[in-house]
């Protein structure tokens, strides 16, 4: 049986920090040391310094694929597997493939390459992490559409954080080292604002400190030789989280927030949907449930659909079975949701689940300037 390849990911806060450049530097060093290295896919973005680093490295020809009214050049997975190098460099792991290829996402292509026993170096920006999707939208006002599961990052053998100050990145942008000149002004006025980059840099630094455990995590400060190893936080013992979800879009936000909490605690997460016995689901509910299934799969959470007339009683039953220690619920849809003249759901949960922490997760998108609808 072929041993699985080793996986190294170069992580950045945004385009232009030097992830691809650093990946190519390490790939060239490996080739010079005698390793059989090929480029499986590279997106140089017409950056001269990046293109220069590809000289002398073998590149597997791309696969031209018809897409809508044009053609797109994609990584040729079968050709990479047939070439069978020792190390393959594959850029932009969160990329969505056009229809007709072996997999929907490039990280799935990479998994096939690793399964074949080939080592992989790859790159990605932190805002593409599925569990950070809401947080990034809240901070930047931009909803990232291409995401990848957190488990891809946490399962990597090594993560290298390419760190650059926002001021230095903006300077590189103005010098034309990130995008062509005609795109610079739009970038500076939108995603590449200093406040956005500051927030993304903080997220990236926290990500490697909190979520990538039992691995050597290197922070590469671009332009210097400084490196540091981020120590892994110890796991909490015996924690298990439950998030009570419903067939509403806001439940996806709740699920992501719960996943972040579970990661910090080193805990498993159950997403629990309570369905009344005999109740029929309309098309809208089915669509929302399917979205929750896909999100749970991407995050590595467990979606449980449980029948019950009472949410709190059902949650207590499931919690006793699953060993739940922490329950997260979303905000009520309106003031009447607190059952002003009766017992609210949080109160019922506290009564039904003694010793279990209950947390109401605020919907930050409701605040002035929230990202929803942008």
What is this entry, summarized?
By secondary structure, this protein is of the alpha/beta class.
Written overview of the protein:
With 374 residues, the protein is α/β, with parallel strands linked by helices. It contains 13 helices and 14 strands. The chain has a seven-stranded parallel sheet, with helices on both faces. Strands 12-11-10-13-14 form a five-stranded parallel sheet, with helices on both faces. Strand 2, helix 2 and strand 3 form a beta-alpha-beta unit. The longest helix is centred in the middle third of the chain and has 17 residues, at 194-210. The radius of gyration is 23 Å and the shape is globular. The model is unreliable at 212-217, 223-237 and 335-339 (pLDDT under 50).
- What composes the largest sheet? 7 strands, parallel
Measured between the Cα atoms of the first and last residue, the distance is 50 Å
What is the rounded Rg? 23 Å
Instruction: Assign the structural class, choosing from mainly alpha, mainly beta, alpha/beta, alpha+beta, or little secondary structure.
Output: alpha/beta
Q: Which spans of ≥5 residues are poorly predicted at pLDDT below 50?
A: 212-217, 223-237, 335-339
Number of helices: 13
Q: Indicate the percent of residues in helices.
A: 25-40%
Tell me how many strands there are. Answer: 14
Biggest sheet, spatial arrangement of strands: 3-2-6-7-1-8-9
Spell the H/E element sequence.
Answer: EHEHEEEHEHEHHEHHHEEHEHEHEHE
Tell me the overall shape: globular
Layout: helices, strands, pairs:
Blueprint: E1 7-12, H1 19-32, E2 37-41, H2 48-53, E3 58-59, E4 63-67, E5 70-74, H3 77-83, E6 87-90, H4 106-115, E7 119-125, H5 133-140, H6 150-154, E8 158-163, H7 166-174, H8 181-189, H9 194-210, E9 216-221, E10 240-245, H10 250-265, E11 268-275, H11 283-299, E12 302-307, H12 311-322, E13 326-330, H13 345-352, E14 357-361
Parallel strand pairs: 1-7, 1-8, 2-3, 2-6, 6-7, 8-9, 10-11, 10-13, 11-12, 13-14
Antiparallel strand pairs: 4-5
């Amino acid at each position: 049986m072929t041993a699985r390849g080793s996986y190294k990911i170069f992580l950045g806060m945004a385009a232009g920090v030097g992830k691809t450049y650093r990946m190519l530097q390490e790939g060239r060093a490996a080739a010079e040391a005698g390793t059989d290295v090929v480029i499986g896919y590279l997106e140089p973005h017409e950056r001269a310094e990046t293109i220069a680093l590809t000289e002398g490295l073998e590149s597997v020809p791309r696969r031209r694929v018809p897409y809508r009214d044009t053609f797109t050049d994609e990584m040729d997975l079968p050709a990479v597997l047939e070439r069978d190098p020792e190390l393959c460099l594959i850029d932009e792991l969160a990329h969505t493939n056009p229809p007709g290829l072996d997999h929907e996402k490039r990280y799935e292509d990479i998994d096939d390459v690793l399964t074949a026993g080939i080592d992989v170096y790859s790159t990605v920006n932190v805002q593409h992490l599925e569990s950070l999707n809401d947080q990034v939208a809240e901070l930047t006002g931009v909803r990232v559409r291409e995401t990848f599961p957190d488990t891809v990052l946490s399962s990597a053998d090594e993560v290298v954080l390419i760190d650059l100050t926002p001021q230095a990145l903006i300077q590189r942008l103005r010098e034309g080292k990130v995008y062509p000149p005609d795109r610079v002004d739009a970038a500076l006025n939108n995603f590449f604002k200093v406040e956005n980059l500051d927030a993304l840099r903080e997220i990236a630094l926290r990500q490697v400190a909190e979520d990538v455990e039992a691995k050597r995590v290197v922070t590469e400060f671009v332009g210097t030789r400084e490196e540091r190893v981020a120590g892994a936080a110890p796991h909490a013992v015996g924690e298990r989280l439950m998030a009570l979800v419903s067939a509403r879009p806001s439940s996806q936000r709740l699920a992501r927030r719960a996943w972040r909490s579970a990661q910090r605690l080193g805990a498993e997460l159950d997403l629990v949907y309570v369905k009344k016995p005999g109740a029929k689901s309309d098309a809208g509910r089915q669509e929302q449930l399917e979205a929750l299934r896909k999100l749970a799969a991407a995050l590595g959470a467990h979606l449980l659909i449980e029948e019950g007339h009472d949410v709190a009683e059902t949650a207590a039953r499931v919690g006793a079975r699953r060993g739940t220690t922490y329950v997260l619920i979303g905000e009520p849809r309106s003031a009447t949701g607190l059952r002003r003249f009766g017992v609210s759901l949080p109160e019922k949960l506290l009564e039904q689940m003694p010793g279990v922490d209950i947390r109401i997760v605020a919907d930050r998108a409701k605040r002035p300037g929230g990202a929803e609808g942008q």
